[in-house]
Amino acid sequence: MIYVYLFSVIVGGILLGASVLLGGHDSDSNADAHADPGQPTFDNDAAGVETLLATFLSVRFWTFFLAFFGLTGLLFTALGLLPWSWAIGIVATGVGLAAGGGAALAFREMTKRQTNSAAMVGDLVGKTVRVVVPFGPGETGKVRFETKGTTQELLAVSIDDTRFASKEEALIVSIDGTRAKVARADDR
Q1: Contact of 76 with 88, CB cutoff 8 Å
Q2: pLDDT at position 82, please?
Q3: How far apart are CA 8 and CA 115, in angstroms?
Q4: Which tens digits make up the pLDDT trace of 133-153?
Q5: Gap between the Cα atoms of 18 and 28, Å rounded
Q6: Domain containing 170 — which CATH number?
Q7: Whole domain around residue 19: which residue ranges?
Q8: Residues 6 or more apart in contact with residue 160 via CB below 8 angstroms
Q9: What domain count does the chain have?
Q10: Is residue 73 a contact partner of residue 5, using CB atoms and an 8 Å limit?
Q11: Which one of 49, 62, 66, 154 is least enclosed by Cβ atoms within 10 Å?
């Protein structure tokens, strides 16, 4: 049985190492059921079975399963932690299943949740900002604002003949390329 553990830890280790060194681009299938007007929809039980099946068929699951199954089996055998080889096999299988399933599900959840801290045009129009670099008619200045938990700066121009002093509040009316067109905040 030790050769099975040794083979598993070597193959799993090679796959994990390759994933880390080569960037680990995910090619696992995504088992989300999407509603299509011409197709019947799946109930929650069917979608859960489909997700479980996709988890067991993913390369990521088998990579983590092999690495942790083999490592656990080798350690338990080498250290003599359990006197029965069948018990070591059960423990190693349980650890492998937990590691493989946990990794596959964790990565699936992370890919579902996309975060984007960049401010979008829709987030900025109508936002009150503070002038950092003063500007007037025909001049370009700079404004600072907070969005999505980050402080950002943007080039700004006045939409009329208004002059903006440093630390003054302004209101973004529109975005033109990389510049915000602003008006007085109290002109709302």
Answers
A1: yes
A2: 84
A3: 35
A4: 999 988 999 999 887 778 888
A5: 16
A6: 2.40.50.140
A7: 2-112
A8: 137, 183
A9: 2
A10: yes
A11: 49
Residue whose tokens read 């002059």: 163
**Is 126 found in the same domain as 105?**
no
Write out the two tokens for 68: 């942790």
**68: number of Cβ within 10 Å:** 24
Eight-class DSSP state of 120: P
Q: Which amino acid is at 110?
A: M
Question: What residues have CB less than 8 Å from 50, skipping those under 6 apart?
Answer: 31, 33, 42
- Which structure tokens are listed for 12? 């799993």
Q: What is the pTM of this model?
A: 0.48
**Length of the chain in residues, anyone?**
188
Give the residue among 175, 170, 174 at the shortest CA–CA distance from 187: 170
**Residue-level pLDDT at 27:** 47
DSSP 10: H
59: closest CA among 9, 21, 22, 103?
103
**Phi, psi (5° rounding) for residue 51?**
-65, -40
